[in-house]
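Give me structure tokens for this 240-residue protein.
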Amino acid sequence: MTMLAAIQAITFDLDDTLWDTLPVIRAAEEELFQWLALRYPEVARQHDIDSLKTVRMKLASEHPERAHDLTWLRRESLRRVGEAAGYSGEAVADGGFEVFIAARHNVAFFDDALPALTQLRRSFRLAALSNGNADVYRLGLEHIFEFALSAVDVGMAKPHSAMFEAARQRLGVAPHEILHVGDHPEHDIEGAAAVGLRTAWINRDGQAWSGNVQPDLEVADLQHLVVTLLPSNRDQCNHD
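Here you go.
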């Protein structure tokens, strides 16, 4: 594809692009709740995992200006439920968030993710763009990504243009020279396309396209992306 010849940099979504997020978050929330039951049992008596989520959702609706900040939502919700249960809210928030965020980084990368990133970084500049609070440095990916941006860093979550525009400015290249790779039709593909970036949709489950803007590329996994961008690596892809 001729449009690929101009690509100089690739930005990657993290959650559900490099790993399956739902089991990670579920396990982290279970670990947090077990910690609460041991350290702050009254919180665990008053809440379960679902009701703690309800508290966070209520916070997000009350503070839309901070709804993009998942770390603040989780810390503040822990502070509030801790105080309501008669404990030091700050102690519950500080300790609870550390338990959660440590478990949140126990990700299982998709088998294709790390080999593909390693191959791509030899030919392209790579950056990470995420609405979540996964830290690429905590994950040991600092040698892969030139930089990482989160919704907190830019003040808005994807699909808002802020994160894509901030990445373009950091990279110092034209929008059409950047390929954004992600799994979400709206947050990743439509958001990136709106500011002129090229887009690649990771469709691991073979779903029908549901977005309003067609991606420039659709690939089943990141190794197929490598093959598309670097045809000399075609033998690396399993075509079974």
